[in-house]
Amino acid sequence: MGAVTDDEVIRKRLLIDGDGAGDDRRINLLLKSFTKWCNSPGTPEEGFTQYQRMLGTLAQCEFSMGKTLMVYDMNLREMENYEKIYSNIEQNIESAHDKITECKKEIQRAKRIRKNRQEYDALAKVIQQHPDRHETLQQLAALDKELQQLSHIKENVDAKLELRKKQFHVLLTTIQELQQTLENDEKSDNDDHSQESPSENGE
After folding, report:
1. Closest to 20 in 3D by CA, of 31, 9, 33
2. DSSP helix/strand/coil, 5
3. Distance of CA 169 to CAs 32, 84, 156, 177, 179, Å?
């Protein structure tokens, strides 16, 4: 069984009961009265009185129908208003979702900025623990100067050591030559004494 629309419900209600105040009974009575009035053999006064009653009943039915139509129009306007409110609510919900999404992005950006700031602070502390470039260059220049001085001292020491080696070699050579000379002199003296001894014995 198909779904019954609002228009069909209102139409049936108008046909059956109008606004719920007994319009169906009035209409039925009006039809009966009209049929009776048409077929009534009564006097003109009685017919006129019955005619006036039918007009009154008809006016009541028309009033009730007009009121029902007003309620129906009001309900239609209420439905349109509810549809607008529903549309506004949907738009607000969609806007809220967009704002939530944007807030999440802002939170992510804030976290990233905070992380970068913490890394920057940590790096700044490490940099502060080391001398700056100018001081480092000065230290390098001082070390280079000291290295040059040490190199010059080493060269002087090497030169002195080489000189001492040469002097020691000359000294050794001189000692050897002196020793050789002494040995030769001693040998020559011994030879002279040997030659003198036989001559003394011949005398």
Report:
1. 9
2. coil
3. 164, 119, 20, 12, 15
pLDDT tens, position by position, for the chain (203 residues)? 444 565 665 555 555 444 445 666 767 777 777 777 777 776 777 767 777 777 877 777 778 778 888 888 899 988 998 899 988 898 989 888 899 999 999 999 999 999 999 988 888 888 777 767 777 788 888 888 888 898 889 888 888 888 888 888 888 888 988 888 888 877 777 776 666 655 555 54
Are the C-beta atoms of residues 64 and 23 closer than 8 Å to each other? yes
Return d(Cα 47, Cα 54) in angstroms, integer. Answer: 10
Long-range contacts of 5-8 (CB under 8 A, 24+ apart): 6/75
Q: Based on the number of CB atoms within 10 Å of its own CB, is 33 exposed (0-12), middle (13-18) or buried (19 or more)? A: middle
Is the Cβ–Cβ distance between 13 and 72 less than 8 Å?
no
In the three-class reduction of DSSP (H, G, I as helix; E, B as strand; rest coil), residue 19 is classed as coil
Type of residue at 51: Y
DSSP for residue 20: T
